[in-house]
Amino acid sequence: xxxxxxxxxxxxxxxxxxxxxxxxxxxxxxxxxxxxxxxxxxxxxxxxxxxxxxxxxxxxxxxxxxxxxxxxxxxxxxxxxxxxxxxxxxxxxxxxxxxxxxxxxxxxxxxxxxxxxxxxxxxxxxxxxxxxxxxxxxxxxxxxxxxxxxxxxxxxxxxxxxxxxxxxxxxxxxxxxxxxxxxxxxxxxxxx
Length: 192
What we know:
This protein is an alpha+beta fold. It has 8 helices and 8 strands, in the order αααβββββαααββαβα.
């Protein structure tokens, strides 16, 4: 992951595009399609692998849902921002349930909850589902809200630092079982 993200950052800098702008995100979407990165390449970055999550940070990991036989579809490789912790797991926003463009829009809306404006390894989001609902930012977050059980996590958690959130949100790593990504995005749009 570090190599992939560094490569993308270097190419972005060479293009003269300002990070965290619409132009940068459009550039990233086109470049990521060309790179064709893999999920396994991400999980090879041992320094980023964690055994637990922190509320307001972002993570990739493999997941095998407890009720997978009852679900119409699910994501085997979620990209999640945990928002509430429970004894047996956590509630999180799985960005894969909305289209890449909507992921970026949601991240922009959630920036109001950032602990600082550095967007580095010290930055996280201070949020909960209750807080999201009260400030009206839940409309795009609602389809992303999922409950995860620690017993069903099949890998360690790969932490994504805030300076890489846009890149991670645009990576085509959703791994839906039971439906296509377009079907999931359409169902999610109906929940807004």
